[in-house]
Amino acid sequence: MVSSPALWLIWALTSTTFASADFVSDLSGKGFQVLVPGSSGYANASTAFNLRFTFQPAAIVYPNNAQDVSTAMKIGAHYNHQVVARSGGHSYIANGLGGKNGLLVVDMSNFKTVSVDSSTNVATIGPGNRLGDVALALNNKGRALPHGTCPYVGIGGHSGYGGYGFTSRKWGLTLDTIQSLDVVLANGTIVTASNSKYPDLFWGLRGSSSSFGIVTAIHAKTFAAPASSTVFQYNWDLSASSAASAINAFQTFVVSPSLPQEFGAELVLGAGSSKGRVSFGLTGGWYAPANQFAAVIAPLLAALPKPASQKLTVGTYINSVQYLGGLGRLSTIGIPDSHDTFYAKSLMTPEGSPMSNASNLAFMNYLANQGFGTNTDWFVEIELYGGTNSAINNVASTATAFANRNSMFTIQFYTSAKGGVPPFPSEGFTLLDGMVNSIINNNPANWGYGAYANYIDDRLTNWQTLYYGGNYPRLQKLKDQYDPLDTLNFPTAIQE
Ligand SMILES: Cc1cc2nc3c(=O)[nH]c(=O)nc-3n(C[C@H](O)[C@H](O)[C@H](O)COP(=O)(O)OP(=O)(O)OC[C@H]3O[C@@H](n4cnc5c(N)ncnc54)[C@H](O)[C@@H]3O)c2cc1C
Ligand SMILES: *[C@@H]1O[C@H](CO)[C@@H](O)[C@H](O)[C@H]1NC(C)=O
Ligand SMILES: *[C@@H]1O[C@H](CO)[C@@H](O)[C@H](O)[C@H]1NC(C)=O
Ligand SMILES: *[C@@H]1O[C@H](CO)[C@@H](O)[C@H](O)[C@H]1NC(C)=O
């Protein structure tokens, strides 16, 4: 592309991808590992979880403590390299690599502490831990946190933007459990943010963390691990109209006054057995005595056709976490992660205005027809965020940067290239756009929906409002205050 040597020099001097010798030598010899283009291990370390993205960081560093993070941050800023944290690397759009070329990536994988204060039950968790390892370490102390099911997701990104699992109706999102955060600011200053120290920063870090700093320790309140947990799974193969009625029934069920917080669930939809049909699953967790579950689920089952299959798995809390993780183990130590090549979207539906029957029918018709025989694999998860007395919605929308506190569902639309390897076919984008539009176009024009920043979407327009609602202007002011030089920048960073 750039052919003449003179032009190359100009390009190199002006391009942010260019890692100068001074930049590299300043990072070196500081007591932490540094990888730059050409280093052995750089190619692997710069590979995104989602192979739809390839980015070339200027350098990847592996600090061992907050002081190292501060050192790296200052060097990055000095040489005009924007800086980004990576914890588990599971960002859907490779924001842990900066979401573009030329950043300084601060990889947090050496931050692996998990400890629990035995008097307060507050856990101190290094952001480089994966969810499976956090669950195991807390369970060893009889404690637990609300979080997602995938064992390899990093707690660093997960807790910065939400953190939903089947215990969230009872315990809230992962970010709702945070009491304080140790964080390195864009100017390299190390602070602890809480409701009493840097309260405005603390507010922004819970919902939009990477725009404001690099978190080096998460201090989170924990909960007693329930004595018994039941994972439930029901499956149907339904016509589009039966599937639409089943969603209607689920929407009615979740707002019944008697629904306990110990009930967490999602609907899982996929291609049915033939064109015109939908694979329809109900799965979730029940975190109270197993013998009470039948009475809780009975009204819903009574409103649905007889399931084609069903399974209840009763055990300890940690059994349920492992079972839901789907790998037959929770530990991730020493076993590398897998990859996928995918695109995902999300839609957070307002509890006060459930999806109309027309919308459910249009949506199910779309899945049953356009979703059948496509050249990508896909699934949809309709995750229950709201319903009666949900702990997620018991938090005010302005209490943290996470604004969407009145949702009934977060719907995740996910499609991957066949075999999970590139290239990603562009029909995948069209398929998912059509799914989302089948819902939005069949609800009121002023329907108050949002989107979920942990299911981050590189093609979403108006993401500022959909992710952050009325909190966005306050986030912009904070960005101006804490990162005036825009050192912490990536495609969906808060813009001053
Ligand atoms: C297979 C899979 C399953 C999932 N299941 C669930 C689920 O059940 N529930 C749910 O809620 N979500 C789920 N997610 C989404 C997941 O919560 C997000 O992708 C999450 O942001 C990943 O965090 P990470 O640390 O692994 O990713 P990273 O790519 O490392 O980071 C994600 C973002 O957070 C920032 N960040 C990371 N660490 C820090 C830090 N220490 N300080 C400041 N900013 C930081 C990064 O810069 C980046 O912008 C799933 C994702 C995948 C891939
Ligand atoms: C929508 O469907 C539900 C359940 O099938 C039904 O009770 C309700 O009356 C329907 N609403 C409308 C407006 O048709
Ligand atoms: C590649 O990087 C991952 C971490 O991202 C690590 O677990 C794995 O061991 C590395 N593989 C090689 C061959 O270095
Ligand atoms: C770094 O930024 C913080 C937050 O804006 C500020 O309080 C602090 O004084 C700054 N430190 C330096 C050395 O400029």
From TrEMBL:
The cofactors required by this protein are: FAD
One molecular function GO term is: FAD binding
Q: Where is the FAD-binding PCMH-type domain?
A: 53-225
Keyword hit for Acetylation: no
| Membrane-traversing stretches | none
Q: What Pfam families does this protein map onto? A: BBE, FAD_binding_4
UniProtKB keywords: FAD, Flavoprotein, Oxidoreductase, Signal
Q: Which residues form the signal peptide?
A: 1-21
Q: Which domain of life is it from?
A: Eukaryota
This protein's record includes keyword Flavoprotein: yes
What PANTHER family does this protein's entry cite? Answer: BINDING OXIDOREDUCTASE, PUTATIVE (AFU_ORTHOLOGUE AFUA_1G17690)-RELATED (PTHR42973), FAD-BINDING PCMH-TYPE DOMAIN-CONTAINING PROTEIN (PTHR42973:SF39)
By sequence similarity, the record places it as follows:
Belongs to the oxygen-dependent FAD-linked oxidoreductase family.
**What is this protein identified as?**
Glucooligosaccharide oxidase
